[in-house]
Specification:
Helices cover 50% and strands 14% of the residues. By secondary structure, the protein is of the alpha+beta class. The protein folds into three domains: 3-49, Ubiquitin-associated (UBA) domain (Helicase, Ruva Protein, domain 3), CATH 1.10.8; 53-109 and 154-205, Elongation factor Ts, dimerisation domain (Tetrahydropterin Synthase, Chain A); 113-152, GTP Cyclohydrolase I, Chain A, domain 1 (Orthogonal Bundle). β3 (187-196) and β4 (204-205) form a beta hairpin. The model is unreliable at 202-210 (pLDDT under 50).
Length: 210
Amino acid sequence: MSVEEIKNLRAKTGAGILDCKKALQESQQNFDKALEWLKKRGLARAEKKSLREAKEGRVSAYLHGEGRIGVLVEVNVETDFAARGEDFKTFVHQLCLHIAAMNPLFINREDVSAKVIKKEEAVFKEQAQREGKKPAVLDKVVEGRMSKWFSEVCLMDQIFLTSSQGDEPKTVEASLKDMIAKLGENILIRRFVRFELGEQLSPTSSKEPN
């Protein structure tokens, strides 16, 4: 499976990187079958809504630990009606709680610069070499450790804390798609910032065409 195949499927459906990769794996890299796999699970349909503009929404704040940690998050939705709904407000509040607890550094993988990725890959490669990994498997080892790193630092790849209350843990991205399907509107996690006493301010934002 090539990166180009994943990019092409994502461009066609708008589905997330992990969903596209899973679809190609399940369909033995058959593009049409992968497309159908995404459609059957509602992933492509939900992502089509992401092409629509989301200019309403809300900015929510959360303080934790007697003010030691603070979170501001902006989440957008298409209509003011949806923004005032309890489902949307609850989702945004839960997102604040999650960010406070899990401290993501980026919203999604696309927000991570090539320079940062290259640096992390070099670190993991050096670690693997010190551990005596054979050259033939070195790239696979680095790829696996990078995937784990993304799941720790990228909000969309993290397991959404509230999902642990359900039958199956879900990522923030999967939970966002569920909310999009439920409301029938595009929802965009535009940006967030997390403050913690003694730490440097590190604002983040999602990438969106101007």
